[in-house]
Design goal:
Helix content: 25-40%
Shape: globular
Strand content: 25-35%
CATH architecture of the largest domain: 3-Layer(aba) Sandwich
Strand order of the largest sheet: 3-2-1-4-5-7-6
Structural class: alpha/beta
Mean pLDDT: 88
Radius of gyration: 15 Å
Order of helices and strands: EHEEHEHEHEEH
Largest sheet: 7 strands, mixed
Number of helices: 5
CATH topology of the largest domain: Rossmann fold
Low-confidence stretches: 165-172
Length: about 170
């Protein structure tokens, strides 16, 4: 089993993934910041949006496919909410494209998102790419937080999803 963790620092999801794998797979992690050194985790310190990071992943994956893509990527916040949300969803869309390209037919994609501007458009993109899309809110998340996770299962498109700017800019 192969799990890819995008935006992996400090390494919490990697730790959970390694425990679940029980030495029956591997975790590939990417982040701008260092990821905690963990047995069973191969990490790359770099920007997922840059060719070097994608090249590293392609080399590690060879021509194999991925069982699970996790994305907890977030942009450096500017304090301008609309700009920060737009940059966040750009990262989500890049993670979605990667997942669609690399997931096995029964694979899954779990991505952290924020309800608000861009949420419905991104969820629509997820629905185009996966047979099932559900919203998950972890128990550890505060009730008033707009942070949720979208879980897409069973990808049914093998080519990257085209981004429609009119959909991603819709308001909730």
């Amino acid at each position: 089993m192969t799990i890819v963790d995008l935006g992996a620092a400090p390494g919490s999801w990697c730790q959970v993934a390694v425990q679940k794998l029980k030495k029956q797979g591997r975790v590939l992690a990417i982040d701008l910041l260092p990821v905690a050194a963990l047995p069973g985790v191969d990490s790359f310190e770099g920007d997922f949006t840059e060719p070097e990071a994608l090249h590293w992943l392609e080399e590690k994956l060879k021509s194999g496919q991925v069982d699970l893509v996790l994305s907890d990527m977030a942009p450096n916040m500017s304090g301008v909410m609309l700009s920060d949300q737009a940059r966040h969803y750009e990262l989500c869309e890049l993670a979605l494209e990667f997942a669609v390209d690399w997931l096995k037919p029964n694979g899954a994609f779990l991505v952290k998102v924020f309800q608000g501007v861009g949420f419905e458009g991104f969820r629509a993109q997820m629905r185009l790419a996966f047979g099932q899309v559900v919203i998950r809110k972890p128990d550890s998340s505060r009730d008033r937080s707009n942070e949720v996770y979208l879980l897409g299962r069973n990808p049914h498109k093998r080519e990257p999803v085209a981004v429609d700017a009119s959909v991603t800019s819709s308001q909730d």
